[in-house]
Structure formats: structure tokens, C-alpha cells
Amino acid sequence: xxxxxxxKTSVIHQPYSGLHLCRDHFxxxxxxxxxxxxxxxxxxxxxxxxxxxxxxxxxxxxxxxxLLQLVGRRRDIxxxxxxxxxxxxGNERSSEARAFAESAGVSCISVSFAEEYGISPxxxxxEHGVYGLEILRRSxxxxxxxxxxxxxxxxxxxxxxxxxxxxxxxxxxTPDRLLPVPKEATGPVSEIRPFMYALSEEIxxxxxxxxGMDIPEPYLPAGDxxxxxxxxxxxxxxxxxxxxxxxxxxxxxxxxxxxxxxxxAIHVCQTCGSLYFDACTAxxxxxxxxxxxx
Length: 294
Hints:
The protein is of the alpha/beta class and about 290 residues long. It has a single domain (about 10-294), classed as HUPs (Rossmann fold). The protein has 10 helices and 9 strands. The strands form 3 sheets. It has a 5-stranded parallel sheet, with helices on both faces. The protein has a two-stranded antiparallel ribbon with strand order 1-2. The radius of gyration is 19 Å and the shape is globular. The mean pLDDT is about 85.
């Protein structure tokens, strides 16, 4: 097939737009979406120290490459990377990501589950699957970011994951949790997700084309049944309705519009700094795994 913009050979077909794009037009389209996400949410400010989650998979390397192009030459913004090094997380290829970061002059901060929590990801995975691992991984990233004085944590979250989160809250009967979090409750480190308008396969392709690295997604243990059902439901529906993920993310953004109410039942855990509603999930998972390990 030919690119719909320049008639060169296409490298991708976007079902939601109907376009076939060549390498150059795909990269331009992808980066335009990422810039729009940053601009829309006000995710860059003078004096920011941004740390990219470079723990595994193609998204981290792709995100680091994009941010280097965007702010790498700015003296008023610092760019770093955080790598959680544990083989049971499936990030054996993290050495490649580290080499890529260091070759660009980006400092890498290394940390491990065993050193910080006293337990291994394998123990967490056996007890709580991918859900528990992601909760504690995110908590660990924030813990490291707070210690290092980092202001923004950059995550390579795709629109698939964003849409799954929205659908899960609706199906679980907790749509109020889609409301924005009050600024005073986010703490000193805020999350930014520049790839939130891109599909996971687009992120993987951007990583291959822009960085020259073909890093597979890390292997993780099976998630909980509900999360798997939500993912399967959204995938099946999107085959016939490719714009479904975008509609779900649009719903969340409409709820976050100025003048909309904010979540009034959210709290910050005084022990680990995680946000929670009824009880801190990160601390509960840690307590349960430690109890079973002894």
C-alpha cells in the first residue's frame, strides 16, 4: 500500500483514521499526538525535572527518545531515567535501554524491588499477579522520584491502557474515580503520559523506527480475571469500532474539564505516598506478601 500523504510505501494502517502512512508521516503523526497531549494537559514547565520510566518494554525507550527531541537541549528542564532492575519483571533488555540513555547523556537511577521492599517481584506476582506488581512498581517509581527531587514521572502509557482503566471503573460501578484528582493530593511528583493518544502497537513501531531498537514487551504474570475480561471486551469491540479507545479517553477528559468536580474521597498514604480511596492498596499488598513469605 501507498502512503495517503506522499505515495511512498506505507508502514502502517490506522483503522481509526483510515490512513496508510509511510515512515516519515507516521513519525510526524505520532509525535504530533504526543505534543498535543503535553500541551493539552500542561505537562511541561520551566524548572521541571522529568524522569522516564525505563524499566522494560519499548514504551520507555520510545518516550525517552521523544522527550530528548523535545526538551533535550533546554537548560531549564532536567531529563533523567529510572530503571527497576529485577529479572523476574521480564526486563532483561533494560541494559540496552540504559546504554541508549547514557549515550544521550541522560543519567539513570537504578533501583530493585528486593532492596526497597525486601521481597521479589516473583513473590508479588504469585500472590497478586500483574495487578499487584503494577501497583507496587508505580509506588516504587514515586518513592524514588520523591527521594531524587523529581517533579514529573513520565510513563509510556498507551491509549489502550487509558481506555481499559476508564472502562474498568464504569463496569465496576465506580465512575466517580474518573474525576480529576485535586492538585493538593498529587504530592510533589505528578505523572505525565505523552503517549496517551497512541495505540500500543504504534508505540512499538515508533520505538523501532525512531530509536532503531526492537525491544519486546516484558513478560508479566497473568492479571486478575476482571482486568483480563475488560481488556478482552475492549479488544473485541474495537475490532468493529476502532475509535472506541479514543471515545473512552475523551470521556475521561470531559470529566476533567474546568468547572467539573474533583475527587473528594482520595487520600495520600503517609507510609508510602500512594493515592488511595478506602485503604492503601500498595501497603496492603506488601503486608500480605511479607506475611506469607515468613
